[in-house]
Design a protein that fits this description.
The chain is α/β, with parallel strands linked by helices. The protein is 42% helix and 11% strand. A hairpin with a 5-residue loop joins strand 7 and strand 8. Helix 3 packs antiparallel against helix 15 and helix 11 crosses helix 18.
Length: 469
């Protein structure tokens, strides 16, 4: 994993840095003063945009209430800005920036932050990290060397990949990968082997589709993939197909015959009724179809693990199994390191910027990260989170034979956390640059157009042109 991260994080962004020059830069607002002191005499309100729902949103509310007790003068206004993808959240922020209506902080991916840097509104965190003034709680505003070292190295480095100066523009919040959730009860009852490769996925899916109960039932599809963005990128990386690169400040390479052949491979599976995506399901999450037993295998984010658990007792519905994503080459496995970070924006009031930093620091503290992990399936961002009582107690009480939904969720979350650790050496991230977020959106949309029968060469060319603007 270190070798992979070392190659990934030797990054560039020359074009972004040039774009940031001007009257406003991305190097920090008024609150970036390393000697800024906390002023508790005046109330401040900060806004946090996110896309969390369900239990994760409830947890966020708990963290906000706890933070309010620590800092009574700070009010955190958490806004679920979109119900859809992180791309939609990025669009909302990008739309708000020209009118200076962006939030103080937001969930984001690296390619989103690269775009925010171009506007000059992204806030560098280095001076907050290095601030040794009192935080009013017996510590300092910033992070000690020990605290920085406590972050999972790859996660911390991801926040530093925007230039070669060591600038930190985001901090890991809820890191995840993808997992293949499968109906273990169904697999066991029918003697099916859990697939490890895409070839095996095809074989198992065809076996399921040939069963009398499903042969003529178009509502039941054996395999579903939630994110077409991730599908295109992961399938490309697994096969060594050019996608993007760091050359020339970021190069767009996906418009090639190998990528077209890859999309046609999945089109064939789709047309045979063996495979589908969230987009093909009318934007219905594959987890929804999975718990209805209209999918028997579904690839989705480990951060959404609990959505793949059926209601009621596991024994009366079905047991959920967890496996790594299918591979094209088991000798060279690749799996996405994903999950959002959090970045901050420049504001005219330095105390608002400082309040945002302090809340971010709290969200990424060891115990809070552990609590978020054990209830969501996201991996902790701090290494010491694994040594907290809350994490140890969660693992120690793993139910082997769940009797209800809560126990089934706990078993599944432990499984995805263990799976994530097992496959961590295969994790990858893709380069970020000024157009990388747009590229991700465009390649994800390719499947829908091609599955609908549009000319693949035209679809790829249009996606390439849209990505280049």
């Amino acid at each position: 994993m270190k070798k992979i991260l070392g190659a990934i994080f030797v990054l560039f962004l020359a074009t972004v840095l040039v774009a940031c020059s001007g009257n406003e830069t991305g190097d920090g607002g008024l609150g970036s003063d390393v000697n800024l002191e906390l002023d508790t005499s005046k109330n401040v309100t900060i806004t946090f945009w996110h896309r969390m729902g369900g239990r994760n949103e409830t947890l966020l509310g708990e963290f906000i209430n706890e933070f309010k007790v620590m800092y009574p003068h700070i009010t955190v206004d958490a806004v679920k800005k979109v119900d859809g993808s992180y791309n939609e959240l990025n669009t909302a922020v990008s739309t708000a920036i020209p009118a200076r209506q962006e939030p103080h902080m937001v969930e984001s991916y690296g390619d989103h932050v690269a775009g925010y840097m171009r506007s000059g509104r992204a806030l560098s965190l280095n001076n907050f990290i290095d601030n040794r003034k009192s935080d009013g709680k017996g510590g300092v505003i910033g992070l000690t060397e020990e605290e920085v070292s406590d972050f999972v190295p790859g996660y911390w480095e991801e926040g530093k990949m925007y230039d070669d100066k060591g600038s930190v523009y985001s901090i890991a919040f809820s890191k995840s990968t993808e997992a293949m959730f499968y109906n273990k009860t169904f697999f066991d009852a029918n003697g099916l082997t859990v697939p490890k490769t895409w070839e095996e996925v095809e074989t198992v899916s065809q076996t399921i589709k040939n069963m009398p109960a499903y042969k003529d039932n178009a509502a039941v599809v054996p395999f579903g993939y939630d994110s077409t963005d991730n599908l295109f990128i992961t399938a490309s990386i697994q096969q060594g197909i050019p996608y993007t690169s760091t050359e020339n400040g970021g190069s767009i390479l996906f418009n090639n015959q190998q990528a077209k052949d890859m999309v046609l491979y999945f089109k064939d599976l789709y047309e045979r009724g063996l495979f589908t995506t969230r987009a093909q399901l009318g934007n219905t999450y594959t987890s929804t179809k999975f718990v209805r037993q209209e999918l028997f295998m579904a690839v989705g984010s480990t951060g959404g693990t609990t959505y793949n658990i059926p209601e009621g007792s596991e024994a009366s519905t079905f047991e959920v199994g967890v496996a790594p994503v299918p591979q094209f080459d088991l000798e060279n496995p690749r799996q996405a390191q994903q999950g959002p970070n959090i970045n901050l924006f420049r504001k005219s009031n330095p105390q608002e910027e400082l309040a945002s930093w302090l809340f971010l620091k709290y969200l990424t503290s060891p115990e809070v990260s552990a609590r978020f992990a054990v209830q969501s399936g996201y991996s902790p961002v701090r290494q010491s989170s694994y040594d907290t009582d809350v994490y140890k107690e969660f693992i120690a009480t793993k139910p082997e034979n769940p009797a209800n939904k809560a126990q089934a969720e706990q078993k599944a979350i432990i499984a995805v956390l263990e799976m994530g650790n097992l496959v961590s050496d295969s994790f990858f991230t893709t380069p970020v640059f000024s157009k990388s977020a747009k590229v991700r959106q465009e390649v994800g949309a390719i499947f829908g157009y091609v599955f609908a029968g549009q000319n693949i060469n035209t679809v790829f060319q249009n996606a390439y042109e849209e990505s280049s603007f």
